[in-house]
Automatic annotation (TrEMBL):
<dbReference type="InterPro" id="IPR044149">
    <property type="entry name" value="Nitrilases_CHs"/>
</dbReference>
<protein>
    <submittedName>
        <fullName>Carbon-nitrogen hydrolase</fullName>
    </submittedName>
</protein>
<comment type="similarity">
    <text>Belongs to the carbon-nitrogen hydrolase superfamily. Nitrilase family.</text>
</comment>
<keyword id="KW-0378">Hydrolase</keyword>
<dbReference type="InterPro" id="IPR036526">
    <property type="entry name" value="C-N_Hydrolase_sf"/>
</dbReference>
<feature type="domain" description="CN hydrolase">
    <location>
        <begin position="5"/>
        <end position="297"/>
    </location>
</feature>
<dbReference type="Pfam" id="PF00795">
    <property type="entry name" value="CN_hydrolase"/>
</dbReference>
<dbReference type="InterPro" id="IPR003010">
    <property type="entry name" value="C-N_Hydrolase"/>
</dbReference>
<dbReference type="GO" id="GO:0016787">
    <property type="term" value="F:hydrolase activity"/>
</dbReference>
Length: 341
């Protein structure tokens, strides 16, 4: 297993509420990152087909059209879009982590906020559904289950991922720590439009805490709200002025890398797609691009000597965390054998 590898965090916007076009964009960025020697390529929360930010800015009675469109454009785990992304991961020999709004075969409108980690052979390693939609997200997504609380065992190390507010859940984070997680992916929406809330600072604080506690690397990957997305959302409402001002006035989230001490952002850079020139960049916020950083997993060892919260610094006789990994379904159907008289 190589201790060093190159990670790429895609700070990009979807083609809002178009699963096909956003999937095509996703694959183009996988190919672009792979061309620049990336081993791991990460995409934001609910990248396909969009993050339902409209639910934070409009009353539910004004969002029925958005919900219908979201249900139509969300994707199946065994659908064409996921197969295309898996093929891209296999062809480029990269590990890909992507956030999706997932729909299911047993319902016309049940959706989950999911994150998928795909191996370099194109196989799905982790299929995680967000345990609890946060705040206004409950108007779109159903609660997930513990099935996806797993780390992906890759040739680059053990990679885990949690979605947005889950990074505030100490038990969910500990469940990944207890599996030897070395790289923690946290995915985020482009904006979080609530009053008195510093979106970039809140995201970073949670990620820093996890890196420090677990002595692991952190990849914060947030979406970008671009002009086309604002225009698309505003075209779907009769409350355009209010929606537009809310979208434009909210602070954009940042994409960045953290080391095992959590103390500072890692050295990182962007690559010009034409000249291939590298430019040092500590984080991305208002510009669409791919941020790259080299991660050396040997750096995850030293801090464990004095503060290993799942090993030498743990009281297993006092604390006992049990995680139910059952994939929940709406019904269990059985067949009884009939007896003829």
């Amino acid at each position: 297993m190589a201790s060093r590898f190159l990670a790429a965090a895609c700070h990009i916007s979807p083609i809002t509420l178009s699963a096909v076009k956003t999937t095509e964009k996703c694959i183009s960025f996988v190919n672009r990152a792979a061309k620049n020697a990336a081993d791991l390529v990460v995409f934001p929360e609910s990248y396909i087909p969009a993050f339902p930010v409209w639910s934070a800015l409009q009353a539910p009675t004004h969002n029925h059209g958005f919900f219908e469109r979201m249900a139509k454009e969300s994707i199946y785990i065994d659908g064409d879009e996921m197969h295309a992304i898996r093929d891209a991961a296999k062809q480029t020999r990269t590990v890909v982590s992507v956030g999706i709004s997932e729909k299911v075969r047993y319902s016309t409108a049940t959706m989950f906020n999911s994150n998928i980690i795909i191996g370099s052979d194109g196989e799905i390693l982790v299929h995680h559904r967000k345990l609890m939609p946060t705040f206004f997200e409950k108007l779109t997504w159903a609660p997930g289950d513990g099935f996806g609380l797993r780390v992906a065992n890759t040739k680059f190390g053990k990679i885990g991922a949690l979605i947005c507010g889950e990074n505030t859940n100490p038990l969910a984070r500990y469940a990944l720590m207890a599996q030897g997680e070395q790289v923690h992916i946290s995915t985020w929406p482009a904006i979080w439009p609530t009053a008195r809330y510093d979106n970039p600072a809140a995201n970073r604080n949670r990620a820093v805490a996890h890196c420090f506690e677990n002595k692991c690397f952190g990849i914060l990957c947030a979406g970008l709200l671009d002009e086309a997305s604002i225009e698309e959302m505003c075209s779907m409402t009769d409350k355009k002025g209010y929606l537009e001002s809310g979208l434009r006035d909210s602070s954009q989230a940042s994409t960045l890398f953290l080391g095992p001490t959590g103390a500072a952002t890692l050295p990182s850079y962007i690559v010009d797609p034409v000249s291939e020139e590298k430019t040092e960049m500590r984080y991305l916020c208002k510009e669409e691009d791919i941020l790259y950083a080299e991660l050396d997993l040997e750096k995850c060892v030293e801090g464990k000597q004095y503060h290993d919260v799942v090993g030498g610094y743990q009281r297993l006789d006092v604390f006992d965390l049990k995680v139910d990994r059952t994939r929940r379904k709406p019904a269990t159907f059985t067949r009884k054998s009939s007896t003829r008289s």
